[in-house]
Design a protein that fits this description.
This protein has 214 residues and is mainly α. It is built from 7 helices and 5 strands. The chain folds into 3 domains: 6-92, Succinate dehydrogenase/fumarate reductase flavoprotein, catalytic domain (Flavocytochrome C3, Chain A, domain 1, Alpha-Beta Complex); 97-157, no CATH class; 160-214, no CATH class. The protein is globular, with a radius of gyration of 21 Å.
Length: 214
């Protein structure tokens, strides 16, 4: 599904449900609250049965087409006129922190694997994973990562060809992650997800003829 840019709500969009109710109106900041707060509110409202959750732009037709031409084109492909029709929306997992856990030097728990920027999970920005945050992390942490890699023997950094790895099938893990590790999560849902993911990870590990890194 295409991403509805943050510029839409910054340009005056409001969130309504299938009954036309503006359900964020009484929240501090309303639709301009922090991304994690808005995402949780949307998720809870959907859980209550409002499946046709929509975002309604208040701007004019000319304004939408000029400023948000990509979103306007996506909407029209789906049969939605953003100038007059609400845009169906739902939270996406990229709004919150995730990625590869790393230390201060960008090292992961996998020998020979560093991560930096949006792919990493440093904990610097809490629950709000905005594009500008990951860019700042890339700028600040890249030097630390480079210095860490510089001090490692080249013999430890021999990547295996990508075609030597089994092909991934995201359709298998997507429902597990959506249900157990989505916008709202608790200990029980996380444990259920781990129990479901473990045999999948075990099968993939057994299928590899060699590890990613020597």
């Amino acid at each position: 599904m295409p991403l509805v840019t943050e510029a839409v709500r910054g340009d005056g969009a409001i969130l309504i449900d299938d009954t036309g109710k503006r359900f964020m109106a009484d929240q501090p900041g309303a639709e301009l609250a922090a991304r994690d707060i808005v995402a949780r509110a949307v998720w809870r409202h959907r859980a209550e049965g409002h499946k046709n959750l929509s975002r309604c732009a208040k701007a004019s037709r000319k304004g939408i087409c000029a400023a948000l031409s990509v979103i306007s084109a996506f909407c029209k492909m789906a049969g939605v006129d953003p100038a007059t029709d609400p845009i169906p929306v739902r939270p996406a997992v990229h709004y919150h922190m995730g990625g590869i856990a790393v230390d201060i030097d960008g090292r992961s728990t996998v020998s020979g694997l560093w991560a930096c920027g949006e792919v990493s999970r440093t904990g610097l920005h809490g629950a709000n994973r905005l594009a500008s945050n990951s860019l700042m992390e890339a700028i600040v942490c890249a030097r630390w990562v480079a210095e860490s890699i510089k001090g490692v023997s080249a013999g430890c950094l021999r990547p295996h060809p990508a075609d030597s790895l089994p092909q991934s099938d995201p359709s298998v893990v997507r429902p597990i992650l959506s249900q157990g590790l989505g916008v709202l999560r608790d200990r029980d849902s996380i444990c259920r997800a781990i129990r479901s993911l473990y045999p999948i990870a075990h099968r993939r590990g057994a299928a590899r003829s060699q590890p990613w890194w020597d």
